[in-house]
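Why does this matter for the project? Reviewers at the last site visit asked to see concrete outputs rather than summary tables. In response, this paragraph embeds two records directly. Each consists of the residue sequence and, immediately after it, the corresponding structure tokens. Nothing has been edited or filtered.
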Amino acid sequence: MSFLYDECSLCELKERTEVEGFCCGDKDLDEFFTNDCFAYAKQLLGKTYFYTLKADPSTVVCAFTLANAGIRVSDLPNARRKKIEANIPHVKSLKDYPAVLVARLGVSEMFRSRHIGSDALEYIKYWFLDPYNKTGCRYILVDAYNAASTISFYESNGFSTVFSTEKQEKEYRHIEGDMPLNTRLMYFDLMPLAKDNM
């Protein structure tokens, strides 16, 4: 039984009033869903969706923003490239692989500890498989906050870091200095799910 699937409805965000009062307890995420996501949509950079309670549609339970993306493996260290391409036949090797980016994901403070974040990620994964996938999408990407609890959350949902170390990721992103990264790029390969659904 899933609270998100059983008790909530998915909507595409169109108006600011639809997410009034939504608070996930993270200043950056709250600001994004209150203001910035509308500019993203207007500039065709990302689309935001949200779940509301079926019993009270004015209560937002969860919100997420999706954007087109890709993994450019030709720029990755050889070991990481091999890991990402491990399940792709050699004949089909490309420089870039299509992906969708979960640009933001937030769960209301009022609905914590109900596996809502995990259920939202599961929905997104299956949304990009046939028959729903209209363009081709091999990977789900996320720029996860570089905090142990956040990285652990995504790992528990099948995601892996694209880079094995922060040093590699800094080099890839051309970031200098000793400060830790704010985020870590992580990916999920959709092919195992696709095979299970064939």
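We now turn to the second protein, recorded in exactly the same manner.
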Amino acid sequence: MRALLLALPLLAANTDPEPAIPPAIKAMLDSAMASGSEGDVSVIVKYAKAADPESAPLVQKIAQNWRNDRMARAQEKLREADFLDLVKGRAEVGGYVSSGNTENVGLTATVEVKREALEWRHKLRLQADYQESLGVATRERYLAAYEPNWKFDDRAYLYGAAQYESDRFSGFHDRVSVSTGTGYSAIKTPSVKLDVELGPAYRLTRFIDSKTESNLAARGSVDLDWKLSRGITVRQNASAYLQDANSTVASKSALLAKLIGPLSAQFSYTLQYESLPPVGRKNTDTTSRAALVVDF
């Protein structure tokens, strides 16, 4: 009993309550968590460490519990969602008509659909470009691409990719590419997302002169989405197929400005490079576009 009485002061010292969070910091933390902004919560945690170091561990603990609960609820939502609930898409339409000394018509249309589930992500892209000058087609390109991803942790995933292209003005009627490999989400924040992929590929090309060519290749891609502000987003998508025969590099740089609701204006610059094009064809095609984009 005497030993217990002597130990009581030590026990009391070890059970001192955690320092209270100053009301101003607590109010800002509650407001940031209510907004659902991961960035705002991180800012408050950083501010608390400088403004009141004694309560900073408690602020950090509350913030981490909020993150864990938020992630658990998001995963539960994904598990219980119907197939169409997780589908998101984007449609892009742009074009021009000119008359007078020259008569030109141009049209570009792109549809992108993505389904993001807990373990699987599916991406589908359809694109068509057509241009006519004085009644004669001067550009005609069609593309269809499908990519399934299996996510084995929060950032790394395995991918498969299948792509079909038709572009007779680049010298081929049909080109089919299939690939598999690994991908990694190098940056994954509310404002910046960066995915990189690398793997082997196989390509089959049927040229306009009826020649057919098949090759093994290495495929790599980079996808960047950067929200500069609530209304401005920069996107950079690039891919490359490198092989002993004709190698291909494709790039699209885009600036999106939010207009109203799901509608945005987009200004983009695309580049298509072929290292060994057919005789009489240029290595590089570039296109600048203005288009309207609808998210759905």
